[in-house]
Every structure is written in structure tokens, then in C-alpha cells.
Amino acid sequence: MDKVVTSATDAVADIPDGATLSVGGFGLCGIPSVLIDALLAAGTSDLEAVSNNCGVDDWGLGRLLAEKRIRRMISSYVGENKEFARQYLSGELEVELTPQGTLAERMRAGGSGIPAFFTATGVGTQVADGGLPWRYDDAGNVVVASPAKQTQVFETAEGPREFVLEHAIVADFGLVRAWKGDRHGNLVYRDSARNFNPLAAMCGRVTIAEVEELVEPGELDPNQVHTPGVFVQRVVALTPEQAADKRIEKRTVRPR
User: Fold this and answer.
1) pTM, 2 dp
2) What is the enclosing helix (H) or strand (E) of 22?
3) Which CATH entry fits the domain spanning 4-115+168-244: 3.50.50.60, 3.40.1080.10, 3.40.50.970, 3.20.20.140?
4) Do 106 and 169 contact (CB within 8 A), yes or no?
5) Which residues, including other chains, have CB under 8 Å from residue 37's CB and lie 6 or more apart?
6) How many CA atoms are closer than 13 Å to the CA of 4, on its beta-carbon side?
7) What secondary structure does DSSP assign to 29-43, as a single string?
8) pLDDT tens-digit map of 3-15
9) Bridge partners for 142 per DSSP
10) Over the stretch 195-232, which tens digit does the pLDDT of each residue have?
11) Pseudo-torsion of CA 69, 71, 77, 83, nearest 10°?
12) What is d(CA 119, CA 188) in angstroms, rounded to the nearest whole number?
């Protein structure tokens, strides 16, 4: 039951080239930065990352991207990373842009054993009709585009309405960051750092959690646990220095 691994290096050592990763965080809030840096040091490449965004140019997933370790992204927002835009528009990176709520539900469904679901989001757009550019060539031509998706009309309280079928996401590995965690893998997130972390943990076949504070089994109030240990296979306890190393994506202050 003790799932604690001695280091982030050991925790990610068996992640192979070509793996699919579900990665928690929103912007730079709640990202598993230590695990990401361990992957960077390991030299793992050809990765597909499922995450709300791709960090920034010098932090988070942006560090893997800068070293050309990511071949494909499934995400909903990518506007803070100039290198991301450059790689995408020059044909070096494949990107499947997904509405944010749909992405969250695809990850949740993958962790819940639901293979697909219908949603109204995207009906009547290229999300449903197909044609969203997933990959360009170096001349700016679209070489891979999203396929058309199945749609179906269902009766709702407001009357008949069209919905689009979305498929669940199951990743080879999930990488998350928690405020507290115990040796059994039960996790608690703090405030907005909760974001995509529970979903990334759910949909990973093997989920690795870096925790800012490791506690003993029984110390967490069961009513406060956000991710039960059944979803987590490995726990990495951060040092105080690692736990405190949190970047601010955009610092906004007002005059004194």
C-alpha cells in the first residue's frame, strides 16, 4: 500500500518514448513541475500530452516543448507560449484543440470507464463538422485536419436538440501535483490548484503524484480527499524548496 517513490527521477523512469501523458494544472497553477523536469532530464521524447495548456516558454510543459520532446498536444488553450505557436504553425507539432469543458469531461469519462458521451458543445462548428487544422506543413498548408464527428438529436426539456459524440481520453501516465498526499495515494489539492489535477489523475493508467506535504495514512480527513488513492500508483514527496518553487504566469499589481 505504500506508494511513495524515493525521487521524481525514479517515478518517471519507465515512461517510454511515445507515451501519452495527462498532465494536471491550469496555466502555471498546480502543474507537476518537478515530474516534468525529471522527464526532461530523462530525455523522454515523442510524447503526446493531454493538458489544458502547454505551460509557458520557460516553465512547465513549455520546457519539454522547447526541447522538441512533445509531438502532439490535446489542449484547450495555448495562447501564452510563443514557441508552441511557432512549432504548430511551422508543422513541427500536431495540436488537437478541444473546448475546455469537453476536454475536462473526456478526461473524467476516461477515468470512469465511459468510452464516449454526447455534448451540445461544438454543434454547428468545425468541432463537430471537422476541418480544424491539427497539423500544418512548413509552407502553411493543412496536412492533418480533424474528422467529422457523429451527431444525434435527443429530446430535452427545451425540445429536440442536436449533440455531438466525443470520445474519452485514457492516458498511459498521469502527472499531477497535490497540496497534501498520504502514502496510500490519497490526495488533497488547494484552492484553484485543484483545476485539472483530479481529472488528469483519473484518466492515467499509471498516475504519479508529486505532493507538497506527505502525511501518514489516517491523517487526511476522508471527507476532504479530492483524489482517492485507487487512482494513484506513485507518490513523490517534494522538498520544501521544490514545493515553494511556484511561478506566476502574469503578475498584475496596482499602484501604491
Assistant:
1) 0.94
2) strand 20-23
3) 3.40.1080.10
4) yes
5) 8, 63
6) 15
7) BT--HHHHHHHHHHT
8) 999 999 999 999 9
9) 136
10) 999 999 999 999 999 999 999 999 999 999 999 999 99
11) 60
12) 29
